[in-house]
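Problem: given the chain below (289 residues), write out its structure.
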Amino acid sequence: MVRFSEAHDVGRLVAPESGLRGREWLPRGKGFWRQLARDWERLHGACHDRASQRRLQHLQRRLASSHVGARESAIAELDVAAKIHRAGGSVLFLPESVARTADLECWFGSERLFIEVTTMIGASKRPHGVARHRAAFQHEPEGDFTIGDLLINRILARIGQKARQLSDYCAPVLLAVHVRQALDGRDQDRPARFEGGKRRHSLVPLDLRRLAGAVTNLLLPLRHLSGVLLALWDVEALPAPSGVRLANVEIAERAGGDALHPIHRVCVLNPESRFQVGEGGRHGLRALL
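Solution.
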């Protein structure tokens, strides 16, 4: 097995030369893989329990997988764990089991949180783009379904799907959703942009406060779920129509987002959860953003 410390360029483990093409491959620079290698080594040194060590070895193998979903989910899990560690928390990787369980157990001081990590990488086999989905929503009263609305609906659907596997926890549990590739690059009504002479898809215009409000409404009846952490890469925040802010929402923006970091991170806590995140956990989550 190739150890990260032995690889000068970790990117060669999953390089484009492996046969992956275009939409199966989400290009990243050498800086990304070097940072990922440092995160892996740091977690490997900090998480001494057997389950975490086995999980880290498993994630390393998944990074070299030709399956884009396996590779991206491994990257997301390492990203969340590394950020918890940098935010001053301690983290353990939970073993996989037949019963669906969270991926991470973390502590901020004396407060314990569980986190399930999931990744969205666009719909690669949807031939008719937004027009097909817009037709399905013609019953909507506003009649003006946008590509941002499509993304919000996909995020809500993923949260609802993953929430079911977290219903047995008797402690604060959060869902971390990494939206690495918001939508299919061939979606209609999504104009292309050019950088350095290369054609790249444009950022998806999205009302982040509307997204946060929709996630809050979804969470209210899901009282077992304490909150949702969103990481959004190719999204452009629309100007807020009002100055009203939800007390349960934190939004962080990174100027000039790149493959290393998402442009936006959003934390939405569930005000009706049976297991509320305490002040120490809230402080840790703000540092994570």
